[in-house]
TrEMBL record:
GO terms for cellular component: plasma membrane. Belongs to the binding-protein-dependent transport system permease family. CysTW subfamily. Keywords: Cell membrane, Membrane, Transmembrane, Transmembrane helix, Transport. The chain crosses the membrane at residues 29-51, 85-104, 116-143, 149-172, 193-215, 251-272. InterPro entries: Bact_Polyamine_Transport (IPR051789), MetI-like (IPR000515), MetI-like_sf (IPR035906). It comes from the Bacteria. This is Spermidine/putrescine ABC transporter permease PotC. It holds the Pfam family BPD_transp_1.
Length: 278
């Protein structure tokens, strides 16, 4: 005697659950749109008015590229840009060497007070910039060191060092320690093992940390304004001095260029980080 096999009944989803999931999905999209609009709408408005032919941002009188062309003939802007690039390259270059050595030393060696030193090394990441600026200024005043472009470099090394060391230490934690040990067993000196085995593996993390520190150094205003001498304005300081009388389209154009360049550098840093993980 055969029994008839009935197909399983279809599961009926109540209308209330279906409407709830649709509402939840729509709410997530709306919240994401509001969040991104809150972050990037002011930047879009800034970019829009950088092409304004009027000298006043509130009145639109037509499209023009004159404000972008004017930047390349502005002596004060070019001078402050040169100062910012000198500070950023010098600070990042010194921090790359010191930060890499610090990260490797903290990861490989044990010594008394290591935990305390580790905590102190990363303090610039959490200390407010205004506190670092005031502390640096007091230190320079106590030792009667004149303020100039190199005092800005010294102050920027403080926080650039911490950022690069953090990125390199993160990369170092993902490496296989047996590769360096194998090189030592095969007769390589510790210096050769570091240069030929460890450093090439750390290079993506070093480059990523340097790009991040470069953007932070270029964008810094507080620390530079406290430690700069007379006549050594950086680009953020020059922008701040000009917007006191109102935001002009040339400043809008300069801000758009800085945003695009910072975004490009951040993209390169993220690309190097992604490549290092792979």
């Amino acid at each position: 005697m055969t029994q008839s096999i009935q197909p399983p009944e279809e599961t009926v989803i109540p209308d209330s659950l279906g409407s709830k999931s649709k509402f939840s999905f729509s709410w997530q999209i709306g919240f994401t749109a509001i969040m991104f609009g809150f972050m990037y709408l002011p930047i879009a408005v800034l970019a829009f008015y950088s092409f304004n032919q009027s000298a006043y941002s509130a009145n639109w009188k037509g499209f023009t590229l004159d404000w972008y062309m004017k930047l390349f003939s502005d002596v004060r802007i070019l001078s402050s840009l040169q100062n910012s690039l000198i500070v950023a390259f010098c600070a990042v270059g010194a921090s790359a060497i010191l930060g890499t050595l610090m990260a490797v030393g903290l990861a490989k060696y044990k010594f008394r007070g290591k935990s305390l030193y580790l905590g102190v090394s990363y303090l610039p990441l959490i200390i407010p910039d205004i506190a670092i600026a005031v502390a640096t200024l007091v230190f320079l005043a106590v030792f009667a060191i004149p303020l100039n472009l190199w005092t800005i470099v010294a102050a920027h090394i403080v926080f650039c060092l911490a950022y690069i060391a953090l990125v390199v230490s993160t990369r170092l934690a993902d490496l296989d320690p047996h590769l360096e040990e194998a090189a030592l067993d095969l007769g390589a000196t510790p210096f050769n093992a570091f240069m030929q085995v460890l450093l090439p593996q750390l290079l993506p993390g070093i480059v990523s940390g340097c790009l991040l520190a470069f953007v932070l150094s270029m964008d810094d205003f507080l620390i530079a304004s406290f430690t700069a001498g007379s006549g050594f304005n950086t680009l953020p300081m020059e922008i701040f001095s000009r917007i006191r009388t109102g935001v002009k389209p040339d400043i809008n154009a300069l801000s758009v260029i800085l945003i695009v360049m910072s975004g490009l550098v951040a993209f390169l840093a993220e690309f190097w980080r992604y490549k290092s993980e792979k």
